[in-house]
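Page 37, continued from 36.
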């Protein structure tokens, strides 16, 4: 069994340990087992601590049968049995995890008190903290719980971690994810929550700083929440505020007015799109009017025109000309086209365009569409017979 120093003192950042074993896994990593460690392993939904052993980067920490295995990035590291090594965790990373995890206990404790739900899926990584509650909650209820959580944080309530005696444990009403074996570690937050947990926690809720729910999704009949605590919440606020400022500059609106301002822009774009389509329709109608009304097959060329406008004009042309009625619309790569006909089989023409001009696309005998790269002369010579 590895002595878990983080269990005794979550604020201990360094330790000297005795090497029990050290074996190279491959050319660049080796696994070290120590008599004692400050490194919290991946456990209970939380990713492991980061840091160094004798200056070598610890890239993973796992626990198996109460033995903690440190994976270190090092080439052919040779540590002798009983040799003393110096361990140091990345404190900023650990403290952030402690803030997130205690924040989760506060929120889950309040959810449990109010609704009786359990957190049945907890995940704490370097980028995200999610909790899955096994029952529904409205956004309004979640925001109330968020406020209560922050009140508990500001009140600076004591957080204590301990292994109670069997007798004491029997008297405790505590939350637990599963039936636990062996000694049970209790994390108690004054007036707020009692929960079985193996992870390091802050000693006062005040150290959590702030708790913000940033995402709510329905999940398996319950709800999945994402939260941010402490510095992570501040960094997120910084990012979101800078994005709001940027939108404010781009729209020349006060930061409090960016939503109506963006809505107005969307409306304006809709109106302009309508006006553009109407102009394009008129332009195509004008071009169509210049065609010989007795021609059987006709081809029109245009550019950057809306697909609905093209289809509308092709349909119109087919009421005048019995043969192929084609519109080729120039774009960055060549042309996209729509061809319709009342009397001729457009799929025959589609085959010809594929064979002769490597066109892409197809359709039905009445109408085809696709794209190709060719000159207007090449196109006309194939369609106008
Ligand atoms: Zn926990």
């Amino acid at each position: 069994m590895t002595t878990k120093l983080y269990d005794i003192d979550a604020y201990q950042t360094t330790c000297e340990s005795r090497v029990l074993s050290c074996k190279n896994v491959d050319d660049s990593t080796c696994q070290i087992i120590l008599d004692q460690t400050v490194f919290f392993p991946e456990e209970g939904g939380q990713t492991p601590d980061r840091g160094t052993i004798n200056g070598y980067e610890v890239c993973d920490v796992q626990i198996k049968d109460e033995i903690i295995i440190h994976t270190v990035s090092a080439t052919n590291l040779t540590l002798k049995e009983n040799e003393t090594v110096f361990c140091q965790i990345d404190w900023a990373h650990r403290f952030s995890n402690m803030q997130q995890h205690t924040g989760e206990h506060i929120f889950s404790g309040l959810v449990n008190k109010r609704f009786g739900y359990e957190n049945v899926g907890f995940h704490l990584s370097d980028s995200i903290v999610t909790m899955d509650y096994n029952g529904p909650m409205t956004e309004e209820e979640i925001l109330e719980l968020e406020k209560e959580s922050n009140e508990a944080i500001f009140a600076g309530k004591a957080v204590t971690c301990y292994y109670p005696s069997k007798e004491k444990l029997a008297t405790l009403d505590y939350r637990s994810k599963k039936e636990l074996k062996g000694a049970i570690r209790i994390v108690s937050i004054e007036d707020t929550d009692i929960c079985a947990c193996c992870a390091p926690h802050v000693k006062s809720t005040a150290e959590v700083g702030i708790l913000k729910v940033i995402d709510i999704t329905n999940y398996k009949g319950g709800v999945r929440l994402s939260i941010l605590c402490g510095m992570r919440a501040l960094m997120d606020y910084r990012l979101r505020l800078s994005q709001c400022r940027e939108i404010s500059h781009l729209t020349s609106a006060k930061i409090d007015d960016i939503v109506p301002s963006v809505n107005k822009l969307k409306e304006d774009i809709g109106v302009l799109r309508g006006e553009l389509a109407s102009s394009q329709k008129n332009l195509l109608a004008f071009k169509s009017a210049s065609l010989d009304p007795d021609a059987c097959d006709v081809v029109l060329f245009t550019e950057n025109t809306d697909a609905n406008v093209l289809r509308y004009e092709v349909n119109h042309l087919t009421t005048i000309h019995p043969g192929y009625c084609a519109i080729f619309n120039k774009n960055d790569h060549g042309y996209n086209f729509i061809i319709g006909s009342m009397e001729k089989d457009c799929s025959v023409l589609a085959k010809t365009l594929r064979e002769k001009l490597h066109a892409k696309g197809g359709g039905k005998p009445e109408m085809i569409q696709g794209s190709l790269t060719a000159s207007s002369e090449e196109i006309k010579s194939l369609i106008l017979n």
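Residues 44, 101, 105, 195, 197, 199 surround zinc ion (CB under 6 Å). Flag for discussion at group meeting. The domain at 290-383 is CATH 3.10.310.40 (Diaminopimelate Epimerase; Chain A, domain 1).
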